[in-house]
Amino acid sequence: ELYLHAGERLKGKKVLVSSGTTRVYLDPIRYIANTSSGKMGYELARQAKLMGADVTLVNGPNQMPKIYGINYVDVETPEQMHQAMLAAFADSDYVFMSAAVSDYKPKEVSDIKIKKSDDELQLELARSIDILKDLGSKKTTQKLIGFAAEDNNHEEHAQNKLSKKNLDYIVLNDLSNFGSDENAVKIIDQQNNIVEVKQAAKAVIAKKIIETVI
Ligand code: CTP
Ligand code: CA
């Protein structure tokens, strides 16, 4: 394996990546989203492609340019992302859930543009689907990798997510790198082995994540 070229290490393998944010709508033109840039997913997809994989990128809203040779499925809402991930999941060898999915969605969605009336407007939110947890419950031979965005680098929160969602690895990243070109991560497996990758370009981090997982 050591002697294989970078371009062959994932030859014949199917890699599924999700990236970007999601949008949950209040009415036809208004939504709640987050500031995820899509860069981590983009770099994971690019590195997997460079290693010879067949790559599908389930692509939530973001500004990243599209990469030639990658199969894109553009989605907007958590439900669309869920369906797109499920459609490709069974056939995949490695699944990287790097999208920042909305935890909540408006309880009611208005069919028409909401008019302003009172001085205050109360929004009620309900939990939205946990895509990764659902994939974890359906996992057979896939290697499933989640991402945990934690404020203070909390390893125990990441470890809880790894076991609750039936993951093979969880990549812990500090929220301070959200949107940045760089990241610093800890890659944690089920035995609690931790590979720490110091602050580096997201391309370097992505390569290290993939190498650790394969
Ligand atoms: N995730 C998901 N669907 C959701 C929320 C999260 O698939 N509705 C995935 C993310 O893509 C990520 C992992 O779950 O790979 C962890 O996301 P994170 O937001 O760190 O954790 P949560 O489980 O949502 O918990 P919390 O936000 O309360 O920390
Ligand atoms: Ca969350």
From TrEMBL:
One of its GO terms (molecular function) is phosphopantothenate--cysteine ligase activity. Binds 1 FMN per subunit. Its EC number is 4.1.1.36, 6.3.2.5. It catalyses: (R)-4'-phosphopantothenate + L-cysteine + CTP = N-[(R)-4-phosphopantothenoyl]-L-cysteine + CMP + diphosphate + H(+); N-[(R)-4-phosphopantothenoyl]-L-cysteine + H(+) = (R)-4'-phosphopantetheine + CO2. GO terms for cellular component: phosphopantothenoylcysteine decarboxylase complex. CTP binds at D103, K113, F147, K161, K165. Transmembrane segments: none annotated. Residues 10-213 form the DNA/pantothenate metabolism flavoprotein C-terminal domain. Its cofactor is FMN; Mg(2+). It comes from the Bacteria. Keywords: Decarboxylase, Flavoprotein, FMN, Ligase, Lyase, Magnesium, Metal-binding, Multifunctional enzyme. Pathway: Cofactor biosynthesis; coenzyme A biosynthesis; CoA from (R)-pantothenate: step 3/5; Cofactor biosynthesis; coenzyme A biosynthesis; CoA from (R)-pantothenate: step 2/5. In the C-terminal section; belongs to the PPC synthetase family. This is Coenzyme A biosynthesis bifunctional protein CoaBC. The chain holds residues 196 to 409 of 409 of the full protein.
